[in-house]
Amino acid sequence: MKKNIVGKAFSLLVTILLVSNSIGIASATPDKAEENGYWTLAKMKTAHPFEMQFDSKTHLGKREVIQNAKKQPPPSDAVTGSPWTQSGLAQSATGKVFFTMGIINYVCSGALVKETDTARSIVLTAGHCVYDPKTGIADNWMFVPDYDALQLSPFSSCDEEDGCWYADKLLAHTGFTDELGFTDTATMYDWGFAVIQSDGATPLPDKDGANAFTLDESGLSENSQGYSFGYPAAGKYRGSDLIYCKGNVFSDSKNNDATWGMVCDMTGGSSGGPWLSDFVAGDGKLSSLNSYKYTNDRRRMYGPKFDSNTRDTFEEALAWSNP
């Protein structure tokens, strides 16, 4: 059975849908009505890639659809925006995220998180790929792992048998959802989790945890090497290939060292894609994600520093069960 997340366009209704617990986790439970095949191939191909573009002067960001990003030559000391061709978990556990904010369809990226419940899968993505302060919780939230393989299978509307998974619950931290815009604080909490429950017929995408990354909130440190993955779909990228960057991470000095940075020219559509530490043979640990870029800098990507708040959000996803 396909499922959908029922979002609300008005902030008053959003406050009703977002239930916060004592440790500051905001969540939304979807309507149990059967989803009616919302994501057709045509809608998936025309979903808008966007970036959260942050302004270092105003300390505010905005959702910006980028179709023709200007190309800038990358520094010579980094691999930037290369197709991933070596399979492994990097390929199978990373995927594309499709959702609706208000009346607009968007695309992001995400990754499966290792856990032990055989009747459930959990996906990590960016907070701005599950929630927007203007339109609320995302509608029609769907995860497609290993999107490269999906393109080989013709379908009309995408469902579990095709490898397309609708979320049963979305969670984010109130450090993100309580902000009225994409602020300094929001950049520090820009993660979200989606819970997908089994329909009892089709094997879940994490394959009982064998096809998922371990969450490690302390995996990155100053000047450690990170790998970033995603499905950029703007500028020179078309959204059809898994792209990666690698390089040493650094603290964002323009953001009070509160977030990580990495040389990476991935564009809109890569938001929410995983940053992996301890990366070996296509596997690594989830330690940050693609979050934002600066309006005047196309060559660097930034992401939150995972911490105990990230772990708390994940633990809340683990604790949730479908009534």
Describe how the helices and strands are arranged.
Elements: H1 11-17, E1 19-20, E2 25-28, H2 41-46, E3 48-55, E4 60-65, E5 79-83, H3 89-92, E6 94-101, E7 104-113, E8 120-125, E9 131-132, E10 136-137, E11 139-145, H4 147-150, E12 165-166, E13 169-173, H5 174-177, E14 182-183, H6 184-188, E15 192-197, E16 214-215, E17 225-230, E18 243-248, E19 250-251, E20 259-263, E21 274-280, E22 283-289, E23 292-294, E24 297-304, H7 308-319
Parallel strand pairs: 3-7, 3-23, 16-22
Antiparallel strand pairs: 1-2, 2-13, 3-4, 4-14, 5-18, 6-7, 6-11, 7-8, 8-15, 9-10, 11-12, 13-15, 17-18, 17-21, 19-20, 20-24, 21-22, 23-24
* Total number of domains: 1
Unreliable residue stretches: 1-17, 69-77
Overall geometry comes to globular
The tally of beta strands, per DSSP, is 24
Class, according to the CATH hierarchy?
Answer: Mainly Beta
- Share of β-strand residues: 35-45%
Gyration radius, in Å: 18 Å
The CATH topology corresponds to Thrombin, subunit H
Termini separation (Å)?
16 Å
Number of continuous helical runs:
7
What is the averaged pLDDT score? 86
Q: What's the story with the biggest beta sheet?
A: 16 strands, mixed
- The CATH architecture can be given as Beta Barrel
The helical percent reads: 10-25%
Structural class: mainly beta
